[in-house]
């Protein structure tokens, strides 16, 4: 299971939010220094998100994203405000290994399908969800500010045959909380698709990482291919070395 070290950008700074709430922001300084620190400690993948672009659709931090890609030898997965083919083409051209598209995949799936076909293996579906009162997983859009009315199961069926690089699955209610990943929700995604799946949201301990590394979905027996960790790494709760070792755990 690959470990993706998350760097979230807002106004050019590295930040972390709690449950996607822009009012619950913690600042962690220069994102370039953070990227350097992760790579120096052995990071093999970075996950960079432009939070301003996710909310507004404008690539406010694109210069910082480019600087990170140019600076580090590790492959960089980029998301936030990716609204169309031009955004995907630009980010791939800048050197992004994979580009995460969320809101557009919900609101204008035809554009997203074209991007997946044009850039096979480079487009990643960003599937951010909240669990509804009826226990269904509902996808969210626009920086998690809007519900979509579309269930995760419906989305997975819609994208079944597209040449995606991966699906990044984020439980919004757990993101930034350190309360643990939603293993049940993740299992639903693993059983509902054949694409590589990257878990995101809630990881706060080595036990959480070991649980993800050893889990197998009930129907298909599939395992997550990766995990995004943000707050627990940037605030020092987890050391990167220990986290990477936990990702190799298995039953």
How would you concisely characterize the structure shown here?
The chain is an alpha/beta fold and 251 residues long. It has helices spanning 31-40, 51-56, 62-71, 85-94, 103-107, 109-118, 152-158, 183-192, 206-214, 231-234, 240-246; strands at residues 2-10, 13-18, 21-27, 45-50, 76-79, 98-101, 123-131, 137-141, 146-151, 166-171, 197-200, 226-229. It has a single domain (2-246), classed as TIM Barrel (Alpha-Beta Barrel), CATH 3.20.20.
Describe the structure.
There is one protein chain. This protein has 251 residues and is an alpha/beta fold. It has one domain (2-246): Aldolase class I (TIM Barrel). Helix content is 35%, strand content 28%. It has an eight-stranded parallel β-barrel with strand order 1-4-5-6-7-10-11-12, surrounded by five helices. Helix 1 (31-40) packs parallel to helix 3. The longest helix has 10 residues, at 31-40. The two termini are 13 Å apart.
- Overall pLDDT: 91
- Name the beta content range: 25-35%
Tally of individual domains:
1
CATH superfamily: Aldolase class I
- CATH overall fold name: TIM Barrel
> What's the count of strands?
12
Briefly note the structural class of the backbone. alpha/beta
Continuous helix count:
11
Shape: globular
Low-confidence stretches: none
The first-level CATH class is given as: Alpha Beta
SSE order, one letter for each helix or strand: EEEHEHHEHEHHEEEHEHEHEHH
């Amino acid at each position: 299971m690959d470990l993706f070290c998350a760097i979230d950008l807002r106004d050019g700074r590295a930040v972390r939010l709690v449950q996607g709430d822009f009012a619950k922001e913690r600042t962690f300084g220069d994102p370039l220094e953070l990227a350097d620190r992760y790579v120096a400690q052995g990071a093999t993948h970075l996950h960079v998100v432009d939070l301003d672009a996710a909310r507004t659709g404008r690539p406010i931090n694109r210069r910082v994203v480019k600087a990170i890609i140019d600076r580090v030898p590790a492959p960089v997965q980029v998301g936030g405000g990716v609204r169309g083919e031009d955004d995907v083409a630009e980010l791939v051209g800048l050197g992004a290994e994979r580009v995460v598209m969320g809101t557009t995949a919900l609101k204008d799936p035809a554009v997203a399908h074209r991007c997946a076909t044009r850039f096979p293996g480079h487009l990643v579906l960003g599937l951010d969800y909240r669990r509804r009162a009826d226990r269904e997983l509902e996808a969210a859009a626009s920086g998690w500010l809007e519900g979509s009315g579309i269930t995760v199961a419906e989305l997975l069926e819609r994208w079944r045959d597209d040449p995606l690089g991966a699906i990044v699955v984020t439980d919004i209610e757990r993101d930034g909380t350190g309360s643990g990943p939603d293993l049940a929700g993740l299992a639903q995604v693993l059983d509902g698709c054949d694409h590589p799946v990257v878990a995101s949201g809630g990881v706060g301990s080595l036990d959480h990482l070991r649980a993800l590394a050893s889990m197998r979905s009930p129907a298909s027996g599939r395992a997550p291919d990766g995990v995004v960790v943000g707050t627990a790494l940037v605030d020092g709760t987890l050391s990167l070395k220990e986290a990477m070792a936990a990702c190799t755990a298995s039953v």
